[in-house]
Specification:
alpha+beta; Heat Shock Protein 90; 3 domains
Length: 360
């Protein structure tokens, strides 16, 4: 039994792969719904428009399409970077196949599009989560090995202090005790919060507003704070204080980077934007509804040599920084099955926090 034209059309409309049909002049003469979603353009606007106006590619790639019309040779591009009409950059794989138009028999190009950004992001998140788990295991083991001898050193120093004949000599045992305590506190900070989360239901914007107040006070109102909130975000169930700590670490880092930047051209600015995202994947798990919070600053950006290791403990771009803030924030957000990502260029750093909401 031959497939009817209606069946073929329905199948094409339900494909997850984006499909475009271009004529010999590279004008779009058909696009399926997946292509519309991928390229963020409606069929009404896209059909009849030249491909290179809907999508901006290198001249060499456009020329390769024209050559394919002439030669009839198929080819595939992997991880091509294109710019959409709204100036967003998209990474995708596409295949070009010269075919004859089923009605006019004129030469056309069948273009199959597969978005890569989502797959690359999922892979990157899986690696980040795996790194975070490995780091936590390493820190826990290291903390055990450090704290045991520290306790012995401190106890021995206290016993020695009682036997010293001179008060002047106790200065040295005090140094031993104080340094042992300092190292113990450092290990405790590496381990992060040790108390069980005290979960309750509250608005996410209560957390962001509290953090904004703290940043305003700490910066003496030098940092301009802009809010772009989505009031429709449902209440979240989590530990309020832990979320405040996670957000505060990120915002405080941004504040310090801007205030300490000798090349800061514009007034220090921090923007907090909240939205919801549906059917969003974090690592290997797909969530029905996720809160998406962006923390945007106009500081100097994150140095390239720190970006791959930014969420590791003791990694800091500041001479007097502890390098624990972002590691602790990532750990706290992981506890609610969320994740923190970032993008950074000089003048614009964006930390994106994703927290699942589907349990509500």
């Amino acid at each position: 039994m031959r497939a009817s034209p209606l069946l073929s059309q329905r199948l094409m409309e339900n494909l997850n792969t984006g499909v475009l049909l271009l004529d010999a002049e590279l004008t779009i003469i058909y696009m399926n719904p997946s292509a519309e979603a991928l390229l963020e353009v409606s069929g009404k606007r896209g059909i009849g428009a030249p491909y290179y106006e809907v999508v901006k590619e290198d001249d060499d790639d456009i020329e390769a399409m024209r050559d394919a019309v002439i030669t009839g040779h198929s080819y595939t591009r992997r991880e091509a970077h294109i710019v959409l009409h709204n100036q967003q950059t998209l990474t995708l794989d596409y295949s070009i196949s010269p075919v004859s138009h089923p009605e006019t028999r004129m030469p056309t190009l069948l273009m199959e599009l597969q978005g890569r950004d989502r797959l690359m992001r999922i892979s990157r998140e899986e690696q980040l989560i795996a790194k975070q788990e490995t780091t936590r295991s390493l820190v826990r083991g290291l903390a055990h090995e450090i704290k045991n001898p520290l306790g012995g050193i401190r106890g021995s120093a206290q016993l020695l202090e009682r036997e010293l004949p001179s008060e002047d000599l106790k200065e040295y045992t005090n140094i031993i005790i104080e340094e042992a305590d300092r190292l113990r506190d450092l290990v405790d900070r590496l381990l992060g919060p040790r108390n069980l989360p005290q979960t309750e239901e509250f608005s996410l914007h209560e957390v962001t507003e509290r953090v904004c107040q703290l940043i305003e006070v700490e910066s003496n109102n030098v940092v301009q704070i802009h809010r772009d909130y989505d009031p429709s975000i449902p209440e979240i169930v989590a530990d309020r204080n832990q979320l405040i700590q996670a957000f505060l670490n990120i915002c405080r880092n941004a504040m310090q980077a801007m205030l300490e930047n000798p090349n800061q051209q514009q007034p220090p600015s921090l923007t907090i934007k909240t939205r919801t995202v549906r059917q969003f994947t974090i690592g290997q798990h797909r969530h029905r509804l996720v809160a998406h919070i962006d923390v945007v600053d106009n500081g100097p950006g994150i140095p390239k040599d720190l970006r791959d290791d930014l969420f590791y403990p003791m990694v800091s771009g500041r001479a007097d920084g502890s390098g624990l803030g972002l590691s602790i924030s990532q750990s706290l957000i992981n506890q609610v099955n969320g994740i923190i990502e970032f993008t950074s260029v000089p003048g614009c750093t964006v930390f994106s926090i994703y927290i699942p909401l589907e349990s509500l």
